[in-house]
TrEMBL record:
Subcellular localization: Nucleus
GO MF entry, a single one: mRNA binding
Ranges for domain RRM: 149-222
All residue ranges annotated as the HTH La-type RNA-binding domain in the record: 42-144
UniProt feature, compositional bias: Basic and acidic residues: 16-28
Biological process annotations from GO: RNA processing
Protein name: HTH La-type RNA-binding domain-containing protein
The species this protein was found in: Bicosoecida sp. CB-2014
Superkingdom to which the source organism belongs: Eukaryota
Gene Ontology annotations for the cellular component aspect, listed alphabetically: nucleus; ribonucleoprotein complex
Lineage: Eukaryota, Sar, Stramenopiles, Bigyra, Opalozoa
Major location category of this protein: nucleus
């Protein structure tokens, strides 16, 4: 969620922010349809609850709160770390999940109840008795180092969504954070992925060669990626300096010739 939850949607993971005889036969068909609709509604409810639990757990996870300044500030607004569940209704990813799960037409109080009920089994956050506020079970960590467990990958379709990309990485292990990298709102076709273990991250680097019909352009540990970018910047700087020196030399030679000729 950007601004009001903006950073979280950009990094959303967990993945995942932001995100319906002839008479007897007619009666039987109607009953079957009703039963099918009820079953579908139950499944949608279960799917929505699981999706909301996963998403909100991500928002309040160590992996996100140490990076998301907006979320950390929101948690720090209350001495005990309580945050109104209604705040989550401003997150694009939560809006998307509620709409897909069939709860998009409920009023805010109804949506808050859906979210609070979904968070009941969470081990990351706890819900107050009124079902209107949540807070982290553990205090926000003062330090967090995920470098050895984080992968950089590039080569995805520009139109890819968080839901499209998640299966690419969950086959290698438990994904704690999947961040789609954007520039001016446009997906840069690259992601940062934090796994639960270093082994999972290394497995991804070793085995991820293609996804959705496209060959990956680059897959590496985040430390190697930063080193690669540093070398790129160094080479570009050197090229600019060489270009500037050549231009200056040419200018000086020209002035000398003019002087000699004049």
């Amino acid at each position: 969620a950007a601004g009001a939850g903006g950073g979280a949607d950009a990094d959303a993971t967990g993945d995942g922010g932001e995100k319906p005889a002839k008479a007897a036969r007619k009666e039987g068909a109607g009953a079957a349809a009703t039963g099918g609709a009820a079953a579908a509604a139950d499944k949608a409810s279960v799917d929505l609850s699981a999706a909301l639990l996963k998403q909100v757990d991500y928002y309040f996870s160590d992996s996100n709160v140490v990076r998301d300044r907006w979320m950390k500030a929101k948690i720090n607004e209350d001495p005990d770390g309580w945050v109104d569940v209604a705040v989550l209704l401003t997150f694009n990813r939560v809006k998307e999940l509620l709409a897909k799960g069939g709860a998009g037409d409920k009023d805010d109080a109804g949506k808050v109840k859906v979210i609070a009920d979904a968070l009941a089994p969470s081990k990351i956050v706890e819900v107050n008795d009124a079902g209107t506020r949540i807070k982290r079970v553990q205090a926000v960590p003062s330090a967090y180092n995920s470098k050895a467990r984080t992968v950089y990958a590039k080569g995805f379709k520009e139109a890819a969504t968080l839901d499209d990309l998640e299966p690419c990485f969950t086959r290698y292990g438990a994904v704690k954070r999947l961040g789609m990298r954007r520039y001016q709102g446009k997906f840069k076709r690259s992601v940062f992925v934090e796994f639960s273990t270093e082994e999972e991250a290394k497995k991804c680097v070793a085995e991820l060669k293609s996804f959705d019909g496209d060959e990956m352009e680059r897959v590496m540990m985040i430390g190697d990626y930063f080193a690669f970018k540093a070398e790129q910047r160094k080479a570009k700087r050197a090229a600019r300096e060489k270009e500037a020196a050549a231009a200056g030399g040419a200018g000086g030679a020209g002035e000398g010739k003019d002087g000699e000729g004049g």
